[in-house]
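Can't attach files on this board, so I'm pasting raw text. These are the components:
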Amino acid sequence: MDLKRRDFLKIIGLSTGSGLLGWVGTANAYVTKPDPHDSAAMLVDTTRCVGCRTCEMVCAEVNNLPEPALLGDESIFEQKRTTETYAHTVVNRYPNPTGEPVYVKTQCRHCNEPACASACLVKAMEKTPEGPVVYHEERCMGCRYCMVACPFYIPKFEWSKAVPAVRKCIFCFERQKEGLEPACAENCPAEALKFGKRKELLEIARTRIYQNPDQYIHHIYGEHEVGGTGWLYLSNIPFEQLGFRMDLGTRPYPEFTKGFLTAVPLVLLIWPALLGGVYAFTNQREQMNNTEKAVSPIKKEV
Amino acid sequence: MAEYIQYPEKIYTPHLWIREKFLMGMSLSAYIKKQFTPFNVVAGLILLVGLPFIALRFSQGLAAVTNANSDYPWGFILSFGLFAGVPLAAGGYVLASTVYLFGLKQYHPLLRPAILTGFLGYFFAVVYLLIDLGRPWRLPYPMFIYYGPASVLFLVAWHVALYLSVQFLEFCPAIFEWLGTERFRRWAMRITIGATIFGVILSTLHQSALGALFLLAPGKLHPLWYSPLIPVFFFISSIFAGLSVVIAESTLSSRFFKDKADYHYLASLDNLTLGLGKAASVVLFTYFGLEVIGVAHGNHWALLGTPFGYWFLIEILMFVLLPCFLFAFGTQKKKVGLVRFTAFLTITGIIFNRLTVVLIALNWNLPHHEIPYWKEFVIVLTIITIHLLTFRWIVNRMPVLREHPDYKGM
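---
Top answer:
C-alpha cells for the assembled complex are below.
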C-alpha cells in the first residue's frame, strides 16, 4: 500500500513534534525560586497586637480602597471576617482562655513557593525575586484557579463587576521598591509588625521565644508551613485556637502537581509509539485478510 | 449487465442551493412554518428566559446570576459544563481509536455521530467556560501572550483548544460531503490516522489534567476524593463516560432522527450497543479497582463510616459497580434495553462524581456550603438547549447518521 510510508513518517513526525513540545513543557515547568532567606518578610507578634486596626486603615489608604467599617468600634470583632476585594487585610479577635483576647491580622502570606502562582496559566500571580507575590491585572483571565489553590483562602474575586479582577495584598510592592516599609508595618503603633529579611526575622522570632519561653508557643507559624511563607506568626496560645490550619504540611504546593507535569512528556512520547504500533498491526492484519479474500473463492466471514 | 439510467448532473442555482443545503429542500415559508413544533416552542421559551440571564452576567458580573463565592470559586456552571461536560464528550476519541487504531471497522456507523457529539461537547464546554471566566475575551492569552507552563490549567487550555480543532478536522469530511466539495473531503480524509492518534494523546492528557487541577488543593478536597491517582481516575472515567454517551446518543438519535439515518446504521445499532456496553463494563470495573486502591493507598477506610463516606459509597456502588454489573449482565443476556438504561445511569454517575469533586467534596471542612442559585440552572439549561438545537441542525443536514450515497463504505 502506497500510503504506508507516509503513515510511518506521520507517526515519526508526530512523536518527534510532541516530544519536543513536552520537553519545552518541562523545561519551563519551574517557577522562579528566590532565595527565601533574603526575601522580604514580616513578623507578626500576636502577643503585641492590640486590635486597633490601624493596619486596616492605612492599607485601605495606600491601595485606594474604601475606609474600613466601624473603625474604633469593638463590635466589629463579634464576627470573624475574611479579606475581601475591598479589604486586603483584616484583624480578628480570638478568645484566650487564660488571659487577654488575641488579635490576629490576616492577609496574603506571600509563600516562598506560592500555590496561586503555580496555578496561574498566564502568570498573573507572580512570586517576585524580592519576596512579594504580586498580581498582574492586565494578564488575568478571571479563571479563579488561584483561589481554589490558595491554602489560606486569600485571593478574592470581584463577583459583581462586568470586568472583574482578583484582589489581594501585594505586600506594598511599589513602596518596597522605593525603599519604604509596607504601610501596615510602618504605622503599627504596638510594634506588632516587624518588616525585614526573612532570615533576620526568623532570628528575632526565635530570640523572643527563647527569652520569654513562657510567653510564647514554641512555634513560628509560617517557618515551614507549605514550604515556608513570607509572613511569620508568633502566638501565646496554640495556633489552632487562632483559626490557623495545622494540617497544611510543610511541602511546597507546586510540588503536588510536579509529578503530573513530569508525566506529560512521557505520555506525549509513549502514546504515539504505542498507538502507532497498534495501528501498524491492525493495518497489516487487514491487508492480509484482503489478500486472502482476493485469492480465496470462498468469502470469509468477518 | 443492467443498464443504468444516466441522470444529468444537477445544476444548482444559488436559490436552489440554499434551499437544498440549509432549508432541508423546502421553500423559506414552508421551512418557517415547519418550525412550530412543540419541542421548538419549549426550546424557544427556555432561550427567552435564559439568554437575558447570560446577558445579565456579562453586564452585571457573575454575582447577578450565580451563588459562586470566594470559598467556592467554581460554581455549578463550570462544574457541570466543563468538568462533567468534557468527560461526557470523550466518545469522539474512544470511538475513533476503536475504529481506526484497533481496526474494529464494524463500529464505523457510530463513529461520525460520536465525533460530532464529541466536537459539540467540547465546543459547548468552552461556551460554559466563556460564561464563567471573569474576562472571557482573554481566552487566547495562555496560547499567545502570557505563558504559565507550570500550571496544570495551562495544559488544559492548550490541549482543549488543540483537541477542539482536531475534532473539527475529524468532522470535516461530513461537512465537505454535505457541501459537495470532493477535493477538500479527500484532503480531510488523509489526516484521519494522524488526527486520531493526536486526539488520543490530547484527550489522555487533558482529561487527566482536569483531575490533576485538584492536586493543588490537598487541604481542601476531601481525602476520599483527593488522591495522587486523581488524574488517572479522571482519565479512566472519561472512557466509560464516552462509551455511555455514544450509546445514549445513538438511542436518542435512532428514535428522533430515524428519517436521517440509513438502514445500515439502524440495523447494526443493537449489536454495536452490546459491544460498547461490554467495553464499558470492563472499564468500569477497572475504575472501581482504582478507586479501591485510592482508598487503600491513603488508608482512608475509617472515613467510609462518615457522612462523606456514605456519599462516596453511593457514588462507587450505585454509579460504578452497579452499572458495571448491569452492562455485563445486559451484554451477556443480549438485553439491549438494559444496556441503554445503564448508559444513562453511568452518565448520571459521571455528573454526580464531577459535581461532587468541584462543589461538594471541595472545602468539605468549611462550615457552610454553597447551594447554586436557580439562575445557574437556567443558564445551564439554556446552553443544553442550544447544544441540542445545534446537534439537530447538523444531523438534519449533513451525513452523520447515514453514509452519503457518493461515499459509501469509505
